[in-house]
Write a structure and sequence with these properties.
Elements (H helix, E strand, L loop, with lengths): L4 E4 L3 H14 L2 E7 L6 H5 L2 E5 L11 H11 L3 E3 L9 H9 L3 E2 L4 H8 L1 H10 L7 E2 L10 E5 L9 E3 L5 H16 L4 E5 L5 E9 L5 E8 L3 E2 L2 E2 L1 E4 L5 H17 L4 E9 L5 E7 L6 H8 L3 H9 L6 H4 L6 E8 L1 E2 L5 E2 L2 E3 L1 E3 L3 E4 L7 E6 L5 E3 L6 E9 L2 H14 L1 E3 L5 H9 L1 H4 L7 H4 L13 H18 L19 E7 L2 E9 L5 E8 L23 E4 L9 E7 L2 E6 L2 E10 L2 E5 L4 E6 L14 E3 L4 E6 L6 E2 L4 E7 L2 E6 L4 E5 L7 E2 L4 E7 H4 L1
Parallel strand pairs: 1-2, 1-4, 2-3, 4-5, 22-23, 29-30
Antiparallel strand pairs: 6-9, 7-8, 7-9, 10-11, 10-15, 12-13, 14-17, 15-16, 17-25, 18-19, 20-24, 21-26, 23-25, 27-28, 27-35, 28-29, 31-32, 32-33, 33-34, 34-35, 36-43, 37-39, 37-42, 38-41, 39-40, 41-43
Length: 691
């Protein structure tokens, strides 16, 4: 049963990954897409594409009938589910097979057995796989802390850590809502939570001849919201523990006659004990690290096994080479509780990439991305944009190369977790393999932006100079004059920018040769307008050479000389050290990439338009989404930090908290209402106003 035309029932990065292997093998491809994904890269790269009407997953990628109809209309003879969506849906697998198509995955029976995590624990415990204590009813729970988990699905959704009995009921209710929204099944269970545990997993592969192979261990302990963000292989694990992990994973596969790619996940305790967590009956997000260290193409193996072929010898007896580390680059703001971010990704460029979606012949970087320049990042789907993977002879070399490429990447238009990832990879604790699932909770220092606050003024200066150079280059007359040139050089140029720490004013003056005579970057504390005085200081009009200053950061900026200024590149010499800044402007947004990292600024108009004044105590939506629950009523007294509403976006729940102590006077959005960023969700009158 040779596969000739494959339909990929997914989107984004994993769809592109499957399409890449199909192109290498000569397999024709079919993509499906929602209306929101009409211009997505995976649609353009497939041989054929079918639109699924609607935007939300429930309307599109979760519709079994629409996907099977797309296969029929395009003549596809096989279906690959990718990960997420319907990849672990036994009903979907059975429907594909009943339609006479080849299912690229394990049997529907195996998916069903492992899809119910409670039943899976019972089944695998009988096969000798070690387990954590588990309870299905709140009254059964014996001791805290515990972890509430969704019985279906994965990706960290529907999971809550509970440290005392008082919080158990609400955690279960919240986990049920999130699981129901993400997977269509709100069933949850409770298991013992292990402090300082490591999350490790084994990639297994089975064929129709009964072979079950273990392809190595992956370390996946660094997580946010119980979802992995850094993965590596072969992992720094004692040989005897690695052997036990392989044996337990193979036993799990044999217990369900597993066929295809799967992952058996374990919790590794500080004393070296292993406990089964779950089995994912699909290809994992982090599969590239295994591919780079074994030289195998796991998607190719999936297709071979689906065609009824035996696993090749190199997969049955894999050889590990070097070390691989992967990070998940996500559209989210770590400083705001990993709040998902939306927008247009105006530039997506990672330096030094040697391959995309494929093997590396020498140490280097691989990029598996679901986005390109101009991609729109919406609220309907997961926040992951891309995976960047480094492969090198040693763990230290791989981490260093990966951090360096991330730090130099140009990611413009959407907030990402890039700075956090770089901080993690460069941390002494990561280098010393002092990692576990609580890593981010113990290390708040990794949430600090890469660009130090006392260096931001240089980025602001570079942005202002580049913007001025761009205006001068586009001037209809006298375009050759230096930017800011005046017959009487009495006053500086003034640019107001909104930066990471608020609004700043950049003032600078160039001499008649175009050199930087003086400059200052200070927070704006006065009224908006030409007469605003920054932080009570001013620049004198007399020559100051290459002098400059900055306040608000607690330190003086060294003397700065302008080497060159162009619309897209500014070179500054700061106290004898020359640094280049790449500048990319989109509308009023000014993206500046420099030696330390990246800063996004917004150039503010000199004469801003008047805006409607918000009522004091207004709570604004931090991102587009749906109000799933309203927890208070108008007239109710609340305290700052109380939960007022729950928003759902990118498959996750986001609490909306009271901004101040007071009385709720307005709740303009009902349950089920859709909101955009900045919409008023509630208004809380201060207590003194409510009396």
């Amino acid at each position: 049963m040779t596969i000739n035309r494959l339909l990929v029932a997914n989107r984004g990065e994993i769809a592109r990954r499957v399409l890449a292997t199909c192109r290498r093998l000569g397999v024709e491809t079919v993509a499906v897409h929602s209306e929101a994904d009409a211009d997505a890269p995976h649609v353009a790269e497939a041989d054929q594409a079918v639109r699924l009407p609607g935007d939300s997953p429930a309307e599109t990628y979760l519709r079994i009938d629409l996907i099977l109809d797309a296969a029929r209309r395009t003549g596809a003879d096989a279906v690959h589910p990718g990960y997420g969506f319907l990849s672990e849906n036994a009903e979907f697998a059975a429907a594909v097979i009943d339609a006479g198509l080849t299912w690229v995955g394990p049997s529907a029976k195996a998916i069903a057995a492992m899809g119910d995590k409670v039943a899976a624990k019972t089944l695998l415990a009988d096969a000798g796989v070690p387990m954590l204590p588990t309870w299905t009813e709140p009254g059964q729970v014996g001791g805290f802390p515990v972890l509430v988990k969704a019985a279906s699905g994965g990706g960290g959704r529907g999971m809550r850590v509970v440290r005392d009995a008082a919080g158990l009921a609400e955690a279960i209710a919240s986990a049920r809502r999130e699981a129901a929204a993400a997977f269509g099944d709100g069933t949850v269970f409770v298991e013992r939570y292990v402090e300082h545990g490591r999350h490790v997993e084994v990639q297994i592969f089975g064929d129709v001849f009964g072979t079950i192979a273990a392809l190595g261990v992956r370390e996946c302990s660094i997580q946010r919201r119980h979802q992995k963000i850094v993965e590596e292989t072969p992992g720094v694990i004692p040989p005897e523990v690695r052997e036990r992990l392989h044996e337990a994973a193979v036993a799990a596969g044999r217990a369900v006659d597993y066929v295809g790619a799967g992952t058996v996940e374990f919790l590794l305790t500080p004393d070296g004990e292993i406990h089964f967590l779950e089995m994912n009956t699909r290809l994992q997000v982090e599969h590239p690290v295994t591919e780079l260290c074994t030289g195998l193409d796991l998607v190719r193996l999936q297709l071979l096994v689906a065609e009824g072929e035996p696993l090749p010898a190199e997969a049955v007896y894999p050889k590990t080479r070097g070390y691989a580390v992967e990070v998940r680059l996500c559209a989210e703001d770590p400083a705001e509780g990993f709040r998902p971010a939306t927008g247009v990704l105006h530039r997506f460029a990672v330096p030094g990439v040697s391959a995309e979606f494929g093997a590396l012949t020498h140490a280097g970087l691989r990029l598996d991305s679901g986005v390109v320049d101009g991609s729109a990042v919406g609220v309907h789907y997961d926040s992951m944009l891309a995976k960047l993977i480094a492969w090198a002879p040693t763990r230290g070399e791989a981490a260093r190369a990966l951090a360096g490429a991330l730090a130099r990447a140009e990611l413009h238009g959407v907030t990402t977790n890039r700075d956090l990832l770089v901080r993690v990879l460069r941390s002494p604790e990561f280098a010393a393999v002092e990692v576990d699932t609580g890593f981010l909770d113990r290390h708040p220092e990794v949430f600090v932006p890469l660009v130090p606050s006392d260096r931001v003024p240089l980025y602001a200066l570079a942005g202002a100079l580049a913007s001025a150079a761009g205006r001068r280059a586009n001037a209809p007359v006298l375009a050759g004059l230096p930017s800011g040139w005046r017959n009487v050089p009495a006053y500086p140029q003034v640019t107001r920018l909104l930066g990471p720490a608020g609004e700043v004013e950049v003032r600078y003056r160039l001499d008649r040769t175009g050199a930087l005579a003086e400059w200052a970057v200070r927070p704006v504390t006065g009224p908006r307008g030409d007469d605003a005085v920054p932080d009570g200081s001013r620049i004198d009009s007399g020559d100051a050479g290459a002098a400059g200053s900055a306040t608000g950061a607690g330190s003086e900026i060294p003397a700065v000389a302008l080497v060159s200024a162009a619309p897209e590149r500014v070179v500054l010499d700061a106290d004898g050290v020359r640094c280049a800044y790449r500048v990319h402007r989109v509308g009023s947004a000014v993206h500046v990439d420099g030696p330390e990292g990246s800063v996004t600024l917004t150039e503010l108009p000199r004469l801003p338009e008047p805006t409607a004044e918000l009522a004091p105590g207004s709570l604004l939506a931090p991102l587009p989404g749906t109000v799933t629950r309203v927890h208070v009523k108008a007239g109710q007294r609340v305290t700052a930090g109380d939960l007022l509403l729950t928003l759902e976006a990118m498959k996750l729940e986001h609490p909306a908290l009271a901004p101040i102590d007071g009385t709720v006077v307005e709740l303009p959005v009902p349950t089920g209402g859709q909101v955009d960023t900045g919409a008023v969700l509630a208004v809380v009158n201060p207590l003194e106003d409510a009396r």
